[in-house]
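Hi Y.,

Following your request, here is the sequence exactly as I used it, all 456 residues.
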Amino acid sequence: MEPAHKKQKSSVAISRLRSRSQLGESKEISKLRPGNMPITEVPCQLAHEINEDYETAVVEEGRIYEYTSAANPAMKEIPVMFHPAEQHRSGPTRVIPFDLSKNIGVPYPCSSPNLMASFLRICKGEQLSTSARATSQAFYVITGKGSSHSDVHGEIPWAMGDMVVLPRCPSEVRHTSDASVDSAIYWVTDEPLLRYLGVSPTEDIFKPTVIRREQMLREVEKISHEEGSEHRNRMGILLGTKATEGPSCEPYFPIRKHHSTKSETTVGAAAAGEVSESEGEGKPKSGGDEQQGSGTLTLTPTLWSLLNVLPAHDHQQPHRHNSVALDLAVYASPKGGVYTLMGPDLDETGTRVKNPIRCDWSTGSVFLTPPGWWHSHHNESDEKAWVLPMQDAGLYTYQRTLDIRFAPAVAEATPVQTEDEELQESAAASKAKTAVVVAMNTDGVVAEPSAVQTSG
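Below is the corresponding structure, written out as tokens. Let me know if you'd prefer a different format.
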């Protein structure tokens, strides 16, 4: 009798197709036919009508799999990744890619199946050119000031905290840092998606867009004072463009036409109110004859971004989504105490991540949350913390497959515990306080989820 493991292996094995002439006449191939037609009436090419060499070549490209064993194929997991800010704080002007292609198993650079993320370090007064075969490119300015120029989209000035978003750009984008300061930029594109599909963009699907730091911080501050804001799963603003607005949406702010000349301040200081109240006021009206966008309310048709504030001595409950998140810690207290807990499951209460991996935030660093993983943010410091995730959720939202879910703050039902169970839970909670940080070094060591030491 054939062993069970061999049966399993054979059930998922592929069947290479042979040419029709090798299979014989149609009546010998199969009795499966449309409408149970008599076999003599099923249309079929005869052997003398087939170019044998070409038939063999095209048929040999086909594969057949048994459905139940192949419907959910085994693929490489998206790893937990951490890229420290030290990478962009020193050294020469350069692109610092977050390339996980070997871990994911693709033949081109990528940080996730659909996205490529990198740091750009530009020394004071120097220039750095970038290019991407992409429909969307996002440039978030971590620090510094300067401008980006392309033959297609012209010159766009920027400063710390600004978000610059460009559509298809056949030419290089040349980034120049001001002579007075080094600059660092968080650069994300959807080039891996296009490389996977074997295509190049042929049209602009949105217009060049800039969302300024002052706009973002003012609106986060505004919503933080709205009634019920303390119960929200995240305290932040989604960033969008006109191309993705919906028929009834009313954005919090319009696109500004002029760049601020204010001197740079820290994110925390600007959020505390050191921004003019007169800039960018008002909400644009929707409706009329103007054509509406896709309705995804995302940064671009493929990219998604959020500026989220985490108040001091607070936490944000777990949530999950099918998109990969590449989170930039915009600001975290240098004293520590700001971190994310992540894992594929919730615990028995349904309110906390089970056996979580802990990623500690440091200002200017990036960490990756795998798709479908629950993740909660925690701030034990005395300062507000800020995070800006970049995701491929524009694509998922359009496909109606994002499937974002939010964990409740309180368990729906609390089971009665015995004294022994209470003692076990207390011991587990004590152990969780000594959670091990994901292994990392200045080169951004990648840790597979199954190999990372966890808490709990």
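The CA atoms of residues 12 and 67 lie 8 Å apart.

Thanks again,
Q.
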